[in-house]
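Fold it.
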Amino acid sequence: MGVYLRKFRKTGRKIWWLSFTHNFRQVFESSHSTSRRFAEKLLAIRRAEVAEARYHLPRSNPPTLELWGKEYVKAIPNASTRRRYSTSLVALVAFFKQDKISQISAEQIEGFKKARRLSGIKPSSINRDLSLMRLLMKAATRQRLIGQNPFDSVEFLEERSGRRQATVLSFDGEEKLLAACDPLLRVLSVLLVETGLRVGHEALGLTWVDLDLANETVVVRQAKTVAGRRTIPLSKFCIEELTKWQNLTGTETSPFVFPAPSDNSKHLMGVRRSWGAALKAAKLPYFPIYNICATFASRLSAAGVPDVFVSQLMGHAGSLLGTYSKATLDYRIDAIRKLEEFREKSKKSESRK
């Protein structure tokens, strides 16, 4: 029993392996590391697990990363998450090719990070790929396809410094933008800036059933997380615009607030072209429409709404403080009231200039 160095013919890489006995059977396990010291530490852990009857042998003949990844992604219930993971899986398979899940080491994952950086991929995109890799390895460890998760010694890339600052609309800028919008884009923009909804499944996927204009609320049901499922009070300005849109389109033609032009049984998937055209016509610098939620958050904070309630209104998974400080509907209504007051004060202040 001990550690020994093994060289792979195809790659020429040298990896330290472990050899120990379990249930009168000799076990060989890769440390996935080029460090002898790390391998010896891992061997000590394995010996302790054997002595305490905590060691479980990995299953024989583990699948390739591609096969394991496809099975994992196929089981994801959320369609948008499946699409995101499928994109990352293509990048992972292109690098690791037909490697089995048990052959992937921490050094190889670091190599993947380096290769992606050299090809000009942004850190945020690489981190999305790494997120899937971490989930695949974690699931493989639970299923005993591998003895140790190599991702335990891998860190994500720092991406905050490279992020583009979100654009916060002034009330004057908002008026210019809305004046340049067609009716659909206008009501959608108002909904986003007054509720903080995500533009995809939350706003464009909204149904008339979710929208309660009589009680002045919108219910978000199609969310990825528990925190995302929430009830948001509507401001008077938002109710006015939604009422106009409802009178214009009616509720009988489609269950969706924003139906697809070609098929009323489906919702609109995007407004990229009309959004870019509206910004250009309003002479505003371009920013993605999904960044408009930053305006909602910024205005709430400026109106004096506590950060924990801002996070809950936007459907963010909060900290421990958020867990014990759930905002009731009354608090949320009060937050929107403060937003309306802030709107009136700010517009008066801008008009004086």
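The CA atoms of residues 82 and 175 lie 37 Å apart.
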